[in-house]
User: Which sequence fits this backbone?
């Protein structure tokens, strides 16, 4: 990209009404970001579907294996602001390429892990990639397409999340059952390598502009509605991951499903999440408050259903599918909420805050869920999911956005 093109991109970010470069929207780059989110989410959530064989092979408890999610989340929370700030002078495409390289490295390390320490190392590397990538994706989308096409670009990027949600859990469980859990991580590494190739070809030069800083993070965090949104993120994400991390173990022990049936249930979870993402996007155009409140409320209802009727295979399958649909709408509602409360120049800072709090919530949920599983049984983690998400829904109903902006 020439200096003049970079100047136009700068104008687009600071004045959304200005036209895009003559070459038009960079849809190839947007799609490459979607592939990146697919690879990251796949790698992050693979332990959910592989928890039992992974723990058995490494000779550790399911609760300890579940902390692989915690390691990724903690590092992701730290790396989101750190990567954004320490790379503020680097071309954004170079940063994104580096994050994808780290994703590949993480998958390879996980596939070859011979101990919990090595597995956790792999998950730490993934956390760096996850935090760095997610903290910049929304701001990059603003530079790749004109403002009126931004919702479409964000929808494409988030489609990577939805497709990964559909594929990662059921395919991971299926491949893990046939070829072993390590094969699932190797397949993820191959997919990440293909993603890097696409990114090398499609992402244009993106000189750093409007970079995040600690001051800008504080400025965004002081916005009253942003504070409420971050509290909701903390409750919803911690509640979701406290329960969903151990959903395979729940399905094995309560309704006593076999691996093939669990794979189908997880597939239903993923497919429902895909449609939940689409439904959340459509509903957000009419009522952002409805999306932000109804999604966690449905998760709470699904969790209660598992606790009260989980012994029934059909009831468990329906509840897990409903849970997936609800969580599919969560990222759309919360990200839209955050971006609408920040000016364009604060987009990257808003993204950093959202990713940081989300990863802290994942870590808190996984740690607390693991402690509950180890000391009070799997159902206690599901119970926490119900309570946390219900409180989140209540907060949105009472304190959420009063009008659409």
Assistant:
């Amino acid at each position: 990209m020439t200096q003049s093109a970079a100047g136009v991109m700068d104008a687009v970010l600071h004045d959304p009404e200005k036209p895009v470069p003559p070459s038009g929207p960079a849809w190839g780059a947007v799609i490459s970001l979607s592939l990146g989110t697919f690879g990251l989410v796949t790698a992050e959530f693979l332990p959910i579907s592989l928890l039992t064989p992974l723990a058995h092979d490494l000779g550790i408890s399911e609760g300890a294996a579940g902390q692989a999610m915690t390691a990724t989340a903690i590092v992701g929370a730290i790396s989101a602001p750190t990567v954004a700030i320490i790379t503020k002078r680097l071309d954004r495409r170079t940063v994104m390429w580096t994050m994808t390289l780290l994703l590949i490295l993480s998958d390879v390390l996980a596939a070859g892990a011979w101990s919990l320490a090595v597995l956790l190392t792999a998950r730490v590397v993934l956390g760096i990639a996850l935090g760095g990538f997610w903290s910049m994706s929304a701001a990059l989308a603003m530079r790749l397409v004109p403002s009126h096409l931004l919702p479409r670009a964000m929808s494409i990027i988030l489609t990577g999340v939805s497709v990964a949600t559909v594929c990662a859990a059921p395919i991971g469980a299926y491949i893990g059952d046939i070829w072993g859990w390590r094969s699932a991580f190797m397949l993820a590494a191959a997919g990440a390598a293909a993603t890097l190739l696409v990114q090398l070809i499609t992402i244009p030069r993106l000189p750093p502009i409007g970079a995040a800083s600690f001051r800008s993070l504080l400025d965004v965090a002081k916005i009253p509605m942003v504070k409420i949104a971050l509290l909701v993120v903390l409750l919803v994400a911690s509640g979701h991951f406290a329960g969903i991390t151990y959903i395979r173990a729940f399905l094995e022990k309560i309704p006593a499903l076999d691996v093939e049936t669990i794979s189908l249930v997880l597939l239903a979870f993923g497919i429902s999440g895909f449609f939940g993402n689409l439904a959340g996007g459509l509903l957000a155009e009419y009522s952002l408050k409805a999306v932000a409140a109804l999604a966690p409320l449905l998760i709470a209802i699904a969790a209660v259903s598992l606790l009260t009727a989980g012994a029934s295979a059909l009831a468990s399958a329906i509840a897990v599918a409903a849970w997936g649909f609800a969580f599919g709408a969560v990222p759309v509602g919360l990200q839209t909420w955050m971006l609408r409360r920040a000016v364009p120049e604060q987009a990257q800072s808003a993204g950093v805050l959202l990713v940081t709090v989300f990863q802290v919530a994942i870590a808190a949920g996984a740690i607390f869920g693991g402690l509950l599983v180890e000391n009070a049984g799997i159902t206690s983690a599901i119970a926490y999911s119900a309570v946390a998400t219900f409180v989140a829904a209540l907060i949105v109903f009472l304190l959420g956005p009063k009008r659409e902006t």
In short: The CA atoms of residues 129 and 373 lie 29 Å apart.
